[in-house]
Amino acid sequence: MNVQSQHFKSRPLPFECIALVLQGGGALGAYQAGVYEALAEADIHPDWVAGVSIGSINAAIIAGNAPSERVSKLRAFWREITANPLLDWASTADALAPKGDLSRAIFNQFSAACAAIAGAPGFFSLRQPAPWLRPGGAIEGTSFYETTHLKSTLERLVDFDRINAGGMRFSAGAVNVCTGNFVYFDNQTHTIRPEHVMASGSLPPGFPAIEIEGEFYWDGGLISNTPLQWVAENGPRQDTLAFQVDLWSAQGDFPRNLADVATRQKEIQYSSRTRANTEQFKQQQRSRHALAGLLAKLPADLLGSDEATMLSSLADHKVYKLVHLIYRSRQYETHSKDYEFSRLSMEDHWQAGYHDAVRTLRQPEALGRPDNLEGVSTYDLAEDGHE
Prior knowledge:
This protein is of the alpha/beta class. The chain has a single domain, classed as Cytosolic phospholipase A2 catalytic domain. The protein has 15 helices and 11 strands. The protein has helices at residues 3-8, 30-41, 54-63, 70-81, 89-92, 101-118, 148-157, 160-165, 194-200, 228-233, 258-295, 300-303, 306-312, 343-361, 381-384; strands spanning 17-22, 48-52, 125-126, 145-146, 169-176, 182-186, 210-212, 215-219, 240-246, 320-326, 376-380. The longest helix is centred in the C-terminal third of the chain and has 38 residues, at 258-295. It starts with a helix and ends with a helix.
């Protein structure tokens, strides 16, 4: 299916900036690649891409390649890290693929166990010898896996000179291990290297902290799993269309057993701050928009006052449209879904992202400029769609 040919020929978007905001979620990140493929087919290309954890890896591949190569490089990354001779038969021979929720759940659990034991090619591998056999103070003794393979993969698939040239803004969130402070590695303030991307995805105790300029960093998802707030507060104020692509849904069924409890715990843990940040952003923008309207009505003598000058720095008359795409977990997926790196599941996640984005782009209101007095509106296919 080609989105552009069906819906978006010569359809300019009424925004000054298009942002792509990518949440963390490990193996679920193929969903984001599928979303991007649909956007690219619709000739929608971000001006700013920001990510946390696996979202930062996808973001680096997008920002670090020419538009014509981004989807193929994303595909190369996801095919590489899901290559497993013990499991590939399920995606290459449909007759052998697991059918039904029970058989698929067993397959996925076996796949996750393989990743836990052997890692994912081009991404991470089990430490040998084990971390508890390492001397105290050694970085090798602080994680179960090592990620040197990821550095090589990033160097092969990402043109970091292109990222640092600044044609597309790039941001990756991480947390300083010693201070606990949340930081963003941004190509407007940093020279981005593979280590910055790796730091954003170094979730302990699985992955080791990454050293950058004498400081050590872990996965930004420890504090906030989505970069929406960074995009909202740290860029020039422009009419913005932001695609927020989440891998964890805040909503879910009541658990039926302990396995469901573990799954639901992860979903709440990694999605709750996302929902809070989204609501906070919307409320702040309403206030800024109302303040801009109020200041526009002040007489000239008051508009030049110190108080008005201070308030004008907080006012914002620009509009923001937030398009929310959320991966909806399948019934057979469990708490291991974020480290279940089978080719079969990767293709499922990719196709889910692609089709969700296509269905969203079909809705005229999804990309429309907010026409309310608040200056901000959201669109979520699950809540606002008509299909």
